[in-house]
Amino acid sequence: MMDGQRVDAVLVQWGERLFFPQNRIVSPDLPPRLHGSLHVRAESVRRRIEATVVRQAPQVIVKLAGGGRGMRAIAAHFRYISRNGQLEMEDDRGELRTGRDSVHDIVNQWRYGGSLIEDVSSRREAFNILLSLPEGFSPGVIRDAARDFAKASLAGHRYVMVLHEHQASPHVHLVVKAEAVSGERMRPWVGNLRWRETFAEKLRARGADVEATRQSTRGENRNYEVLWRLRAKESGVLRTASEPTRTGENYMKSRAQAMQAWSNIMSALAESQSPQDRSLADHIAGFVRRSPFFREVVGKYDRQADTASQRWPEPSLGRASSRIEPGPEMTR
């Protein structure tokens, strides 16, 4: 049996790789996600594990859906998300507006405020962000969390947000001006993971049980569909049950690294003196076995073994020997 401090040390070491990779932070003012004593950090990892593998909390979605190359495209997106002014728009100053004249006013503010935005530009002058959750969450909670998210993550930028609650899953459209008040331009691809975590934090503060783990942590193998395909499915124009899947060396490497982290965490919890930790190890074993990536890798070995008229044995994920050793196909 491991003592509690050794278990906590393993949880922090490998939990950071699963849930807090490189502690990427968009703003230097934001604190690291894991801080405090060893036990405090380990408890934070335990909470993330329980939410992911026991409760299987819904995953928040923060999707960067392109952006306008010029004021003509930005204005068209304003009209789309506001239904030409019929839906309420909220800006970075907290002002609420409706009507076509309001859309026109916002367009002029963005065009002439700061550097002039021409009708057509060679670069993106705004970015479109979609914040959403699966069905079953209150539109008001999503709207309020989106407002808190925007204040924390988009400070210094002009933005407009609109809540859509007329579809199955309520969601918020955010349009953020690429150039900040300071003149610095936004680099949204740097902070997408941190954005998801911030949105999840704001939702949890309002009582929503949600998570923001990476696909590799969950052993997922899907690519998110592009926005036009999602809209086409919602409108019934496109009918397909197929889901785009990921392949390639980076995909295999990230999933194999996640499996290694789960394996080390599971081994430590299985050797813990705490019954709660040992129960959590069992939950992890089931979660990993059910993950698409694990089943994909096991399936590859099974198909290869079938060719040789013998089956590859499934790795033991029991309490005493709960390690997942990535095979050659996982690390190649």
TrEMBL record:
Residues of the MobA/VirD2-like nuclease domain: 91-204
Classification via InterPro entries: Endonuclease_MobA/VirD2
Region (Disordered): 303-332
Protein name as catalogued: Relaxase/mobilization nuclease domain-containing protein
Species annotation: Pelomonas parva
